[in-house]
Design brief:
By secondary structure, this protein is of the alpha+beta class. It has 22 helices and 18 strands. The strands form three sheets. Strands 1, 2, 3, 6, 7, 8, 9, 10, 11, 12, 16, 17 and 18 form a 13-stranded antiparallel sheet that branches.
Length: 583
């Protein structure tokens, strides 16, 4: 990436490091760092742009860009703030996938910091004594479901390879937010309420997120997290190794292997088998991006162990054989559902951690394979589930996504998570963060591409995506939402590229998600539209879900300006901003 302009690195370092000075770091601001204005889901302007689910995180990213930082700097700084304000969706107890376009190098790179299984995990670890899968709920809220966290190593890799500031500097805004606190909104309060029973069962989680009487914090109250501020500060001083070795690592291992269940609670909480060596040996490798051509554009995504890039890519390859621009919306959705079902069938059969299984990625993304799968699509819906194809060589509801672009041409699309809303439900005592439950993304039964194994990364659906025209980025997008991430990204791309929607319109549109299941999940607004009856006449069946995904994206406009977009309503709405708004 390009270096900062002369003198601006010194300004940025001064701005981000002031509070690290001894006298300043101990100061307690009189008021929380509350948003200064309501969330704005769309922004247009120059100088760089950012979109996240949270106003404080978006403001942090734009401040870093305005001070001369690049898109990677801003993405990591914003992600660290989201670890404070969105702790049930992401944080240093989890992992993710970062996709970046590097303007100076004219290429897309990806950093895999997905969680790994500890070396003690066996192929049958999620089976009971009778050889049957254990109850899913017991895996979710357990030490057994916790993977070795990758987020901190991923941030360190991103900044050291492609950033212009240190991890120490990038963490400082988040330290301030954790120490000062943030104002609890409706989404945070409702997510706490939904997790109340399991949060209350663990001493560390209860102390961190619940009021003294064991209830969820009130909307409008201030939540401070001094333990996380101290954890971030230790990592800032000593680097990423402070997380993977030493006191923090010992606390993680102790929590995984001996979850702090309150005395008298009857919940079955299975211990894990993580050790210090699992943390010390964790690596965040670079992976080749997936790349498919679609309507003259190049669509770059995340490869295995994510299934996002391959499944979105295969679905787009199938759809390219249809003239969607000439189709009405009902026809477009029918074709989208069928392409998604076929791609999901192949995902489920073949995609896993490529370090452990032979993923036929080239074949899955080939035009020839897409043509074979496309030939199965007719005027009416295929019976679901459909069977996988035969190539020549044969995730949870939470998560968060952020998107950043700078005025030097660099773009970051970053999805990271702790899996379920609230992750494992188990906070590390005294450290201020929740542990993930990512190992529940494995198939519990042995013998599949995504079965457990020591050190293996479970298959993910995260789909951070960058679209390029003639090698230059024009769009970046992603979403949370478990397996629905793939269909959310696919729907946004089709709406934007084929159906003429603007990025804000594509993000706001009612969603439906077909994942090779007998029914297609759909939001209330989708089911209330005429599309429902038209698609049911073709043989599609629907079930209602409250909402699907919570996307963010950035469009790079022809005049050189940026259009940043976030959800206007889903998950409480998101926040978009640019460095220099268009008047």
């Amino acid at each position: 990436m390009r270096h900062l302009r002369p003198l601006r690195p010194l300004l940025l370092a001064l701005v981000l490091c002031l509070a690290l000075l001894p006298g300043v770091a101990a100061a307690q601001p009189a008021a929380p760092l509350a948003p200064t204005a309501p969330k704005v889901p769309t922004a247009v302007g120059d100088g760089g742009a950012a979109a996240t689910v949270d106003e404080l995180a978006t403001r942090t990213a734009v401040d870093v860009l305005a001070a001369g930082g690049n898109a990677v700097d801003a993405a990591v700084a914003a992600a660290a703030v989201l670890g404070v304000t969105e702790p049930y969706s992401c944080g240093i107890g989890g992992g993710g996938f970062l996709v970046a376009y590097l303007a100076d190098e004219d290429r897309v790179v990806t950093i895999d910091h997905r969680e790994t299984a500890p070396n003690s995990l066996r192929e049958d670890s999620f089976l009971d004594a009778a050889g049957q899968p254990i109850p899913f709920g017991e895996a979710v809220t357990s030490g057994l479901g916790v993977g070795v966290p990758g987020t901190v190593r991923g941030w360190q890799q991103a900044l050291s390879r492609y950033g212009t500031i240190s991890l120490r500097q990038a963490l400082q805004p988040a330290i301030d937010v954790a120490r000062s606190g943030f104002v609890v909104d409706e989404t945070f309060a409702s997510q706490t309420e939904a997790n109340l029973e399991r949060f209350a069962d663990f001493s560390s989680t209860r102390e961190l997120f619940l009021d003294d009487d064991g209830t969820a914090p009130d909307v409008g109250s201030v939540l401070r997290n001094p333990d996380l501020a101290d954890t971030y500060r230790l990592i800032a001083r000593r680097g990423a190794d402070a997380f993977y070795r030493g006191p923090i690592a010992r606390d993680i291992v102790s929590t995984v292997n001996r979850p702090p269940l309150l005395a008298g609670e009857t919940r079955t909480v299975r211990p894990g088998g993580m050790d210090l060596g699992d943390l010390a040996s964790y690596a965040a490798p670079h992976r080749p991006p997936t790349m498919v051509e679609y309507r003259g554009l190049e669509v770059a995504g995340m490869g295995p162990p994510s299934s996002g890039g391959s499944t979105v890519g295969e679905a787009l390859n199938i759809l390219e054989g249809f003239d969607l621009a000439a189709a009405d919306r009902e026809e477009a959705f029918h074709l989208q559902f069928e392409a998604a079902a076929l791609a999901f069938a192949d995902r489920n059969a073949y995609v896993g951690d490529a370090d452990y299984v032979d993923v036929p990625l080239e074949e899955l993304l080939s035009d020839e394979f897409a043509a074979e799968r496309r030939a199965l699509i007719g005027e009416t819906a295929l019976p679901k589930p459909v069977a996988p194809g035969v190539p020549d060589s044969a995730e949870g509801e939470s998560t968060t996504h952020l998107t950043v672009a700078d005025d030097q041409g660099n773009v970051v699309s970053y999805t990271f998570t702790i899996e379920s809303t609230g992750g494992s439900g188990i906070a590390v005592p005294g450290r201020g963060f929740l542990l993930n439950n990512e190992l529940t993304d494995f198939n519990f039964v042995p013998g599949t591409a995504n079965s457990p194994a020591p050190g293996k990364r479970p298959r993910s659906s995260m789909s951070p995506t960058i679209v390029l025209r003639d090698g230059e980025p024009v769009l970046a997008v992603g979403s949370p939402g478990g397996a629905t991430i793939i269909t959310t990204v696919l729907q946004i791309l089709v709406d934007d590229i084929d159906l003429g929607a603007s990025l804000p319109e594509a993000i706001a549109a009612p969603r439906a998600s077909q994942r090779n299941l007998p029914v297609t999940n759909a939001e209330p607004a989708f089911l209330a539209s005429p599309l429902r009856a038209e698609l049911e006449a073709r043989g599609h069946a629907f079930s209602e879900v409250a909402e699907i995904g919570a996307a963010t994206g950035i469009a790079l406009l022809d005049d050189g300006s940026f259009l940043a977009a976030a959800e206007p309503d889903r998950r409480g709405g998101g926040a978009a901003a640019v460095v220099a708004p268009t008047p």
